[in-house]
Design goal:
88 residues; mainly alpha
């Protein structure tokens, strides 16, 4: 991942509070990581929404299902009854 250096204008009290909290957990070098995590967290809802939108906008193709006759005669009712008996 390519890193960039940026500058932002924020309230000095907010920055000092953030810097103190971030540095107490990660050290002074961890402040950039804390800012990046905060930005990623802020964007996470949007990222999830975009991924879901992509999933639901895909066009589905019609699927044709052909019935298959079993090679061995079976009774679905009998099989279900046996499964229920084994579960108890």
């Amino acid at each position: 991942m390519v890193k960039i250096k940026t500058s932002v204008m924020i309230d000095s009290d907010v920055w000092e509070t953030f810097k103190i909290q971030a540095s107490s957990k990660r050290g002074m070098k961890g402040i950039s990581e804390a800012v990046e995590e905060a930005l990623e967290e802020e964007l996470s809802g949007e990222t999830v929404a975009e991924a879901l939108a992509k999933m639901f906008t895909r066009k589905t193709t019609d699927i044709q299902v052909n019935p298959v006759k079993p090679k061995i005669p079976t009774s679905a009712g009998k099989v279900v009854s046996e499964m229920r008996a084994q579960a108890t």
